[in-house]
Amino acid sequence: MSRLADYFVVVGYDHEKERGGTSSGKIIQRFPDTDWENCPFTQGIELFCQPVGWSLSSRREPPEFFVAVLTDIDADRHYCTCLTFSETIAITSTKGDDPDGDEPSGIHSSLMFAPKSLVLVSRLDYFDVFRNCLGIIYSTYVDKLDYQLESLVGNILGCIQVPPIGGPQVRFSIGAGDRQALQPPLSSSIPVSGNTVALLFKQLGIQNTLVLFCAALTDHKILFHSQSNSRLTDACRGLTVLFYPFKYSYVYIPILPAPLIEVLNTPTPFLAGIHSSLMDDTSDLLDVIVVDLDGGSIFIPECINLPMIPEPILTRTKTCLKMVLNPDLLMADHAFPAPSPKKPASLEQKDKEIRAIFIRMFAEVFAGYRTCLTLIRIHPEPFITFHKANFLGHKGMVEDDFLIRVLDAMAFGGFVAERGPPYRVCDIFDEVYAVLQEQLKEEVNDPEKVMSNIKDIAKQLHTNENPNPQPYVQKVPKPTEGAYSRIHQPPFPYLDWQHVQKIIDEGVHKQPVKPKFNNLRPPQLRIVPIGPTIGLVTDRLRIVDNNARRLEVLRNCVSFIFENKITDARIIFPAVLRALKSRVARLSLTQELSYHIRSNRAMLEHQQFDLVVKLLNCALQNDSSMDENGIAAAILPLATSFCRKLCTGVIQFAYTLVQEHPVWSNQQFWEASFYQDVQKQIKQLYLPQQREHMIMEKKRDSSYSPPQYRNEDELSVPSYRSSSTTPDAQRRLSGFKPRQIGALEIAAEQLRVWPTLSSEQQLEMMNNEESTVYSQAIHYSNRMVYMRVPLETTKPIKTLSPHDWESNSNSNITASLAESDSIDAESGFDETEISDVGATVVRFVTRFVDKVCNDSGVTQDHIKALHQMIPGVVAMHVETLEAVHRESKRLPPIQKPKILKPTLLSGEEVVMDGLRVYLLPDGREEGMGSNMGGPSLLPAEGAIFLTNYRIIFKGIPCDPLACEQVVVRYFPVSTLTKEKQIKLQYTAHIDQLPKDGIQLRSNIFQLMKIAFDEEVNPEDVDAFRKLSNKYRNPNNVFSTFAFSGQTMLQPTPLHKHKEKNASLKHFAKKTLIKTARKAGIKSKPSGNRKPNKYVLPTPPQQRRSLASPRSSTAGSDSESDRPVSELYDDLSIIDEADFPQSLTADPKFLEKLMTRPGYNDYKRLGFGDLMGGAQTLRTRTDLFRISTVNANYSVCRSYPALLVVPASVTDNSIRKFARTHRQSRFPVITWRHQRTKALLLRASGFHSRGLMGMLKPESGSGTSGGEPSSSLQQERYFSAIVGATPNSGRVYHPSCSDSLTSLDSLMMVEQPITLPDTPDMLRRAYKTGSVRSMVKPKTTSFGRIGSIKEKSRMSGTASLDSSAAARINGALGEGNYGDRSHGDLINNSVQGLKRVALYVLGEKAQMKGIKMESFPKCDFIPVDFYEVRHVKASFKKLMRACVPSAPPTQENTFYKAVEECEWLLQIQNILQLAGATVDLLDVQGSSVMMCLEDGWDFTTQVVSVAQILLDPYYRTIEGFRALVEKEWLSFGHRFTHRSNQTAANQASGFAPLFLQFLDVVHQVMNQFPLSFEYNDFYLRFLAYHYVASRFRSFMLDNEYERMEAGWLCEERKTPKIDDTDVEGGFAYRHQHQPSLGMSVWDYIDKHHRKSSIFWNFYYSPHDQEMVLRPYSNMSNLRVWEYYLTEDLAHGPPYEIEVTQREIQLNEEEITETSGQMTRKVVNGCYDNIRIQQPDSFTWQLQEMYKTENDLGLLPQKWKTVWDKIERPNRDTIHRNASFNTQMVRSHGRSIHKRSTLEILVKGKMLGEAAKMFSQPHRFEKYTYTTPVYCDYCSQVLWGLLKTGMHCADCGYNCHEKCVNNVPKNCTKLKIVADSNSSSNVSRAGGSESGSVTGVTTVPSTSTGYEQMSSGSSEQQTFEGYLFKRGALLKGWKQRWFVLDSTKHQLRYYDAMEDSSCKGFIDLLDIVSIQPIKNVQGAPKRSDENAFFELKTVRRVYNFLAFDAKTAQEWIDRIHSFI
Asked: Dihedral angle at the C-alpha atoms of 440, 445, 450, 453, nearest 10 degrees?
């Protein structure tokens, strides 16, 4: 019996506080005024009476009723039912005198309405009864009924007693003529819902309610909001009712008042509701799910990951809900639907059916949960835990996020505690849980039974709430209609508290307890049904895993081991390891091993012990640390049983070798295993004696299938058999299982008889259970010590983090690995090291003991004894392990394969002997034998060697089927680009996965993932890494193998020589002296050194910084802080005395130079000879001369000594204007067209405008003060070039090879230049209508407008897309914008391309300030090119794509990775620009000058490719050498710097410019295979050796440095070739000088004479075209085979001697093994197809050579034989080409020329038209609330269904479908007119990097802001105003900042409209960026959270944004860009 209500409270408006300025409520009266003893009064009720806040109203509101819920400190809920009405009050206000008004002061009054609440507080939830009671009190008050209010209140509080749950119906009256009834529910565990659940679904719908349910079940914060307080309470109540059988145990506040809104910031989950008017106060809640009840929507924040109910349960639940809520849905499509029922289902009926569905859902989700309950104690109270890992593992939901979160939630813990006991009161859930699985089977066959079963459950729920079938008619007085609105209504009276208290006291004392309540039958206790077992529910789904053959192999292997048939066991051992990936196989393994244990110990031989430990380790590593399958628990007794004898008295157990698995450090595993074993002991304790002899039930299971366990007891390893039973007999016995009595059944019986036992018996049982737990705790303490103390106790324990488990658990440590190091031997990994092993283990075990013993009820005395015992056990075990470790060290090591010695080159020495390693497979499928087929060559076991030239691996595959082959992988040590440590994963064929591993990546597209063997010491690994780094980064190039390899140096041990600058004083002195010389203060002493014979002494001239100005101009890769080379660094440590400085123009030296192939090419081109000149008569060719102005390298250090210039230009003039170019690399002639006589010139970019003013004539040079300036000399030089071009003065005849007359013919066609390259582009053009505009006359569209770096990623399109075409056609052709001048501008640009004698192709920044009138017949064309930093980044991505470190995924495929690297786009760009050069020279007849970057990178690429396309000579082997020596070596490509050949250049990063050039040549060769004398192998050979550092040819940065080194003009004899050279391939007949190295060209010539390895047999010089015009479309480009191929048989084939020797060794081994050569199997990844299966020509030549040798004849050279071959005669057939043939031929030339014209026109459009195309819109999705029209198609935009796109910059509106067609002419940025500069060239720093300061101030030029900003999308550029603090003692200034991801810069301007950039920060220099606070000197009224700090390598910047949000956005954007 309990009271109906505890308190009655009257709460009113507090007028006193109102006068103080605050409005609140106060308790006017409460009854009783003293607290009940068992129910204290809850404070703060007045806050809940008005949740929105107490306030006066000007209108009377009708009475309101709602229920608020309060929770006290004991987590008991108190229900506050509030009835609120309005009372009239008079407000009087006094108005003071108005000094300016005429009205006198007076008193004014008005009527207002104050709220008053009547509250009943109760612990019962009979809301309807409380509503009636409060309604009667209000009706009595408002209608003035003849009843005393005191009597009504007293009767409610003292006279009405409510029966307990399950009691009868109570009928009562409170004394106002009413009749009421109260019916308690039948069950206390089933919540009462009424219709709240159905109402919740009605408001939110099925999907939203399910999402909300999952959120609440997974402990998320949920906030309801509504206009109705009652709806809030009903929604919260309905959601918690759905939780049944769970109970919501977190914060529960259905109605949260406004003053307590801060409660929502709690970190714990909650379920709360607030009034919708308070939603503005919750905008800062980031992790709260907000539910709008009125709108039926749910808002889930992005930070919340909400898991849903697993399938198929979710789908089944949704289907059932639709059947209940939408019953007509299934019949909606019926042609003749059944008539709908006359009476639809009520809301309450739907409520119960919905609840029934959720009860079924819970029963299905937790099916089998009772078999995972673990019983620990029965008496005095049951203690039961839940085996979470077992449950998840058997259900196969280890990774199911929903189920994991639910099991970890507090609600599930309460569920286990409440429903775990096996003997208790059962309810509906227990019944449904017991029969649901059978029902689901029936429902599959009969779907109609679904609703029938649901309605049965719903009926039980309805009966629980309404057990009385006969309704009782209640009588409840109600107020008359409109009574609340009466004007003269008196206030609620003040009740007589004494009268009320008297009635309460009388009711409490006089009312007796009714007999019928005492005679209530208590709830019946019974045994809870066990329900479905977890095995029966889930294991039937895994019957496919039960492979009988695999289990048979497993059993045979175990039998062979214990029968000591080790050889047979090893044969099938790999198959067993693969089989152990299955859960069933692992369980079977533990069972098989348990059969062989006798007397709790199994002493094994060493080999037996090794194999058993391998099996245990493999089983553990294939399982997770959760041990969801019970594998680790089953291995525990096995690991403490299997052992071997090391010596007398020393026994090693298996647990010492299976410790390195994360499961042993998982506390939850130990607890679960402990509880499982305790349950077994408790079960044995209570198992009746007679049950042990039950009749055996024959229940045969397949011996290969997993055991069908009935409960958790059977999941463990069977108990040890007696020694008299054989394993086979045990297996036979295991097939007959007696009926198992579960622990829960025993506990239920014990709980049933517990009350009948005497106290002595009860005490005895309690002591027995406590002793059982205590003994098991002792046992597990020892087990934990065994598993946690490592074998080598001197090493610290490594504490594994969760993300390291997988990688660290994959080590199969075997028994004979006693020499292995501890697990933390590798110092490169992050790890937590603990010094004291014993203390660590003691803490771990003690923590476990405290947890399990306290939970299990062990006495404190026993716990204290355990604490005292554990340190002693640890100490004893550590002492025992020391002896075991000592003896295990003496075991003989495992037999390892013999280390194979690598084949070495002449002069190559082994620096570090082979370290035994495993070569692991990487991301390439070749060699793994999986998808590609063939043998599994990787992983391979062998050794890694470090020589003074290469890193070599040589070994054999681990796969037994491929172990007869030899695997070789190597790369030159100089090509090593990255070394990193790797976390090892499980790899097939490796029994013992080592711990140490590193990954070595080479820039020749090689990758080595190596894992060091256990026998390798960490010191050796460190030595290997240090030595490889030493040889990778030599101090200078003379320490590389190219020079030191011939001297037979012994680098190990390393001898430390004394350095030149051994002291700081000496270094400082030399530095000061050198600086003084550079400044001209001190001259260089001549000394007595004699220069070399052919070395030119230089005049005493200081090294001017202006000659190579590095501070103001930098390379295009932004490397201003990096010296050009070792000689360019002004503060270089290299002494200048090391190089001759006195250079003179020695005629013999110049004569020697002219004999080199590069200079000899000048003679071939007709530029004259050095010995010609003034002494001979001038002829027609005397327009040019070979100048010696740079003979002493004084004009330009990076230029060759001899240069071709116009004959009319003097050397003195050259010296002057050379300074106008970067690095003084002035324009020189490098090639001339033989027909058109057009010239090809190369130079660097022009200097910036600011630097030009610093260039003054040199003093003392003999020039007068009135001599013309450098600019005038430059103009004269350009005029001389123009004069030497025949096109400047006469009309040339077109090329006969071309069908079109010139480039001008392209301008006459009616078609636009836009040519879609792909069908998709063409289809899009048709869709958008741009194709229709293509055929219109007078319409021209040009492609590729804008920077390459600003383009979106396209797969090789060579023209504009449809949107660009439409934009240009519309804007220019049709004149949509009313400005016809745009079209005239383009027409003028096109016309301006005609008849120009010289085209200067340069950077955009150079072209703005040029005075065109100063350069007649010249045109300056800006072009786009990829900078070096883009090449570096692209190459890194290309290496990862072609040689990935991990297998590619479905998302990141090989083709996608190649596309994202943009390498082919860069190849395409070079081809297009070279093609434009070809057309201008060959078709237009104009000269071309290439002036890009510093003139040694991209310029060299384009010029070289153009010459190959134009001149057939360069397509020969001789000509290609001349081209490379001329353009790349002589003209100073920085090979040492770009290839990182020395330690000083490592920081710059590898830039493969020469490799890119070779790739372009390869692309051309693919399209013209008959035009090249050399083959693809020739190009790949050069690509390999230009970075390999074997030859000297590609070393140092320019000709000057090579001359200083002494090998430029060395005298060398041609090496002789004899037979020994062919056979051995190691000894050269002519020995080179050790200090000069060897030339790659001599090496190529030698092998070219010996074999046809470099020859292209398809070369046809007579059939080839003179000028090649390759396609540059992406579809015509190929990924070079050089990046993809690999030959594991001998390594890269580019070391020809090594390849020949390895092949010879393999053939000899095969011959020795088999006696004769058998059939050869060639694998693509192992053998080199070109060598093993040569082409027909090569094979015939080889056969002829062998035949001549066999006949004793002198073999002829292959070239002689080839030249003798008569080619077949081909009759020349003259026929007229068809129209289609002519179209095909002209189409290729047309596309090529159009590409050229597009480049030229794009460069010309630098004015208004270019700006119109360079400003795209920044569109964002926008929902329009008012009608808006699309600015493109003029259709309406309005409403949610008409969401459009809005430009955030200019306000342009359009449909989403119209975005692609909108002209990109955003008007945000103002157009700045071009300024006319007096300087000839100006440059804005677009490709320059900064100087030593962080933000570089660049000169003000005409390059507008729109040129600097990115023209793509907002993903590339971010901009806005920021305050920037200046340098020291400077203030804050506002600047306009632009974050450009394309140029990788953060630039700033004075204002948004400013056209000139004031400075920039290179994003590559940024070290960190973070918000800061408390900035000194900050501007006033600034937000302290809006400051952020940007730290670069040079300085620190402080910025201030407008607010914190903007500052964070800047920080995020910069983070994303860097």
From this structure: -70
Beta pairing partners, 1819: 1847
Distance (Å, whole) CA 155 – CA 173: 8
According to DSSP, the residues that pair with 87 across neighbouring strands are 114
Q: Which letter does DSSP use for residue 1185 in this model?
A: E
Q: Residue 177: is its pLDDT beyond 80?
A: yes
Pairing status of strand 1398-1402 against strand 1418-1422: parallel
Phi, psi of 721 (to 5 degrees): -80, 160
Q: Are 656 and 616 in contact (CB under 8 A)?
A: no
Residue 1486 CA to residue 1289 CA, distance in Å, equals 11
Kindly state the helix (H) or strand (E) to which residue 13 belongs, with its residue range.
Answer: strand 7-13
- Whether the CB-CB separation of 875 and 838 falls below 8 Å is answered with yes
Find the helix or strand (DSSP H, E) in which 375 lies.
strand 373-377
Q: In angstroms, how far apart are the furthest CA atoms of the chain?
A: 146
Task: Give the DSSP per-residue string, 496-523.
Answer: -HHHHHHHHHHHHHH-PPPHHHHTPPPP
In this structure, are residues 1463 and 1443 in contact, taking their beta carbons and an 8 Å threshold? no
pLDDT tens, 879-925?
898 889 888 888 876 667 788 899 898 888 999 888 989 888 887 76
The confidence score (pLDDT) of residue 1394 equals: 59
DSSP string, 880-919: HHHHHHHHHTTSPPPP-PPPPPPP--TT--EEEEEEEEEE
The predicted pLDDT at position 21 comes to: 62
Place of tokens 């406590």: 770
| Counts for the chain of helices (H) and strands (E), in that order | 60, 49
Query: pLDDT digits over 462-480, tens only?
Result: 999 888 877 788 888 888 8
β-sheet bridge partners, residue 274: 225
Query: Which residue in 800, 845, 834, 829 sits closest to 660, CA to CA?
Result: 800
Give every CB contact of residue 1737 below 8 A, 6+ residues apart in sequence.
1652, 1657, 1762
CB 1168 within 8 Å of CB 1187 = no
Between helix 347-365 and helix 428-445 the angle, nearest 10°, is: 90
Eight-state DSSP code of residue 179: B
Query: Dihedral through CA 311, CA 314, CA 315, CA 317, nearest 10?
Result: 140
Q: What is the pLDDT of the chain when averaged over all its residues?
A: 76
> What span, in angstroms and rounded, lies between the C-alpha atoms of 195 and 946?
80
CA distance 575 to 572: 5
Residue with tokens 């030159």: 972
Half-sphere exposure of residue 1459: CA atoms within 13 angstroms, side-chain side: 13
Q: How many CB atoms lie within 10 A of CB 1269?
A: 16
User: Which long-range contacts does 507-514 make (Cβ < 8 Å, 24+ apart)?
Assistant: 507/154, 507/155, 507/157, 507/158, 507/159, 508/158, 511/159, 511/161, 513/1, 513/161
Q: What H or E segment, with its residue span, contains residue 1801?
A: helix 1779-1804
- Bridge partners (DSSP) of residue 650 are 647
CB 919: neighbour CB atoms within 10 A?
27
Of 1175, 1172, 1201, 1200, the closest CA to residue 1185 belongs to 1172
Mean pLDDT of 1661-1671: 85
Q: What is the Cα–Cα distance from 1056 to 951, expressed in whole angstroms?
A: 23
CA distance 1369 to 1342: 10
What does the alpha-carbon distance between residue 796 and residue 1507 come to, in Å, rounded to a whole number?
66
pTM (two decimals): 0.55
